[in-house]
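Hi W.,

Here's what went into the run:
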Amino acid sequence: MKRLAHLIIITPLIIFLFIVCCLWRGLNHDPHAIPIPPSLINHPVPKFTAATLLDANKTVNQTILKNHLITMLNVFASWCTSCQVEHPILMDINRSHTVNLVGLNYKDQRNDVLPWLKKLGNPYQTIIYDPQGQLGINLGVYGTPETFIIDSQGIIRYKYIGPITPDIWQQELLPLITSLQKH
Amino acid sequence: MMHRLITLRLLKSKLWSSVYKVSVILLVIVFTSYQDDANASESVVNQSHQYENTSHQIYPFTSATQAAQFDSLIKQMRCLVCQNENLADSNADLAYDLRQKIYEMIKDGDSDSEIKRYFVDRYGDFILFNPPLTRRTIVLWFFPGLLLLLGFVILYRLVRR
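Here's what came out:
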């Protein structure tokens, strides 16, 4: 009986500690880290037609993302500072010839992005021009930079959100690309 | 009856009564700070009414049903950049684009479920404020009801005594 009485008294304390545990876990949980929807991964790239950035008269479609190499589709914009941060690593990746690196210029203007690319260098094999961000929505893009890994069948295998760092490339993306290439 | 008397007696002892008081105070602090957040979001909701009045000038519809469909959909979907705002309230760039896409889809005659499906496929369940019932959300949906039931059981037993 006395034990039950003790239990009743410390019930508020138990509830408090439970809430503290929940809040404590919440501190390490990034609410901006949106889980990548499983409906996007392992599905073919949606059909689209869009102009290229460098040649406004030339249009491309989803087949540009289907290559004998693994395709890396990098969403970028000249107004995006994190894109500038990841830019050198993209230059290195393109030099290594491990992937078919395609750019998606997202919600940008030719007048802004062409000088940007001239100054920093162009790491992309092809650049798709999406000034209205409509193709971005079709691909489930909600910010820049984002990077899609697409296999030789044109199926989306992975999506990385945020700037690619040398560590991310070495430990996360490159092993995935190598394993996809073996299949 | 017996354990209630012991509880009272224990509460008279210094140690136990202070343990009890401190933990109740802590709980009150936690809940009042939570309340502040709730008030803050309320003011955001009030702002949305201003936007609503102008929304049909930006997104003109020929039929009232389509206008109503648009109004209801943009309230049910989340702005993924600001996260705690819906598409009706948000001024973020992405929210503009998503609203535009919803507008075009409604103009094309797509149904609510087709539009929701399109966005869920691309952005995940997260884009809907109302989470669908899946294996992952089963606790979320049924735990409150379970707690209520438990409350009734405890109440019933107390009253009967």
